[in-house]
Every structure is written in structure tokens, then in C-alpha cells.
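Archive transcription. Copying these from loose printouts into the bound notebook so they stop getting lost. Printout 1 of 2:
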Amino acid sequence: MGVGDPVLFLHSGFSRGILAFASQMLDFQKKYTCYFPDFRGHGRTRCESLEWSTPQIADDVIEFMNQMDISTAHLVGYSLGANVGLHLAVDHSDRVA
């Protein structure tokens, strides 16, 4: 949603995905292109195994960015999403705006 620099919203492990950011969506989409990916096993995304890790989800986010042709993005996250964001900032700093 929106137009401008990409922003990835990274939800917690106990959230309902995109609904966790419902109150921020309208404001952010005025200046940014907003993406709300579900983590594996969360929201509408299935997971073949219940075993997953924060670094694995960070790699999933990089794959999402690759598939969406997003070279760099701002990150907004909380709880698990904040931890994923930290992994991205450390391991893929060239992809974080």
C-alpha cells in the first residue's frame, strides 16, 4: 500500500499479522510503500514445520524482499519483529535503510 520508499512492518510472534499495524497503516502509506509480510507459521502463511528461528525468519524476509524487488527498506517491528529487524540490520545491513 502507498507510494514512496519501502517500509516492512514486522509483527510479533503472537500477532495477527497485518492487523497488528492497523492503526499505523493509513499514516505510513501517505509517504511510503508499506509491506506487511506474515512470518512463516503466522497469519495466513503456513509452515511445514513448527520449528523455526529468528535468523530463519530474517532470511525469509530477505527472500521476500528479493521476490518483491526491494533493494533496501525501512523496518518497523516489535517483539519478534524487532528481533528479526535486528538480525537483518546485523547480517544484511546493506538491505536496511
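Printout 2 of 2:
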Amino acid sequence: MEVFLAEYGLSTEEGLALMSLAEALLRVPDAETSDALIEDKIAPADWKRHKGRSKSSLVNMSTRGLMLTGGVLGRRDPA
């Protein structure tokens, strides 16, 4: 966890997005709102700038997952 926090600290846009997402998901009333919140926080962030920067393979794989998720959400058509 410490290595993940070192890569995604609150001094980064992506770290702030993850922190606000974690806090907000505790309070959302339904799945639709959760989905919208996740899309709002994950899609616009620049996850690529974190790619391969950590010594931890777990953090680097998490970064790839966030890149993939952001890419998929960024290509969705607005409903």
C-alpha cells in the first residue's frame, strides 16, 4: 500500500481522483450514480504518465488496469 501511495500521492491529479473516488463511493445511493462517478474520475486522468514508474509490479499492473479502464470509459457514447 505504501508503494501505491508513493506513486499516486495527493500531489498528483490521479492521486486526488482516486482519493475522492474512494471517499465518494462510500456515500453514493445507487449503481448508476457509482458508475457515473467512476467514469467522471477515471476517464479524464492521465494514467499513462505513471506507467512503469514504480518498482512494484503490483502498482505497475494497477496502472495498466487504470489505463485500460480510462480508455474504455473515454470511448463510451454519452447516454
